[in-house]
Each structure stands twice: as C-alpha cells, then as structure tokens.
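Notes, p. 3: input format for complexes.
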Amino acid sequence: MKEVTYHGLAFEPYITRAEIDARVAELGKTITEECAGKRPLFICVLNGAFPFASDLFRAVDLPDAEITFIRLKSYSGTESTGTVKEMIGLSENIEGRTVIVVEDIVDTGHTIFKVLNDLKEKKPADIKVATLLFKPEALVRPVKPDYVGFEIPKKFIIGFGLDIDGQARNLNDIYSLKDEKA
Ligand code: IMP
Ligand code: MG
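Output follows (182 residues plus magnesium ion):
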C-alpha cells in the first residue's frame, strides 16, 4: 500500500481493509449473540459511518434487525470544532426498542454524547454505541462505546468513510496523517 496525498498532506497506510473486515466480522458475531431474540434498530450517523454501518449490519445475523440513518456534523478540517449541530433525520419510533448507534469514530465524544442525549429522550429500551475507531486519549465527554473496532492514539485518520474536508471517504483502507518530522 502506498502513501496518499490530500490537501497537500501525506497519509500513510494504517489499518488495512482485511483487518477491518476481520474485526467487523467479530463485532457482528458479538452483536448477534448479545441481541438474540431482539429487534435491534441500527442508527447510522452520516456521513462517515456509512461503509462501516453497511458492513456491520450485514455481519449481524438477526432476521428482525433494521437500519436507519441520521445526520449531525461537528468537524471541519483536522481539528474538532467542539460545536455540535442538531440531530436530524430520525423518523422511526424508537420507544422500547434496542438501538445501536453506529459511528465512524469517537474522538472528543461531543458528537456521540449529543446523539445519545437526543435519542434517550425518545425512550428506547436500550442504547448501545458501535464505533469503527475510538481515540480514548481525546475523549472529553463521559461516553463509553460498547462495540469498538479499533482503539487508536490521537492521530488524524482518513479512509473507509472518514474524510478530510469531504474527501477520502472512498479509500478502502484507513490511512493516518504522517508525522511531519518523520
Ligand atoms: P467528536 O465529536 O470529536 O467525537 O468527533 C466525531 C466526528 O468527528 C466523527 O464522526 C468524524 O466525523 C470527525 N472526526 C474525528 N476524528 C477524526 C479523524 O481522525 N478523521 C476524520 N474525521 C474525524
Ligand atoms: Mg462523522
């Protein structure tokens, strides 16, 4: 795998598609076991989570599982703004249901914290969080994702749904911003 360049910044290969596939299969199996007999509603947080949600949802072997999509944006460039907009797009009634929120990455935790607060008002039976990536060192909100693909250090990541100013979401593997001093 080669380096890629976006906006004049060099990114190096970090997590391969094969590693993602293997991890998603494991998470799918865990969710299948833990949600047996339930009717979980997966809520994919657009835009970044769409490839992960697509793979994870299909790795879950539950006939009554459903998926829907919401949107909420908090990021511009390589630094979190910390400002979170409103959650939009949920038309389903989630009262009494098991909900699994699917995120691409939990960084500071502002985004998922806001989503969880908004969803809790709608009285689901249970809310879980599945995230492809988790940066525990960056977390400033009291949230703990239930299903984590990969815990990573405070690096800026692109690919497999994660973007830099809207680009690079279509990379099949995950890349990290190269250390300028390296
Ligand atoms: P948080 O609100 O700081 O947890 O950030 C969550 C959102 O910021 C994610 O859904 C991403 O859209 C974006 N984000 C956080 N870290 C990265 C990164 O390393 N690369 C690309 N986007 C990121
Ligand atoms: Mg996102």
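Helices lie at 17-34, 50-59, 110-120.
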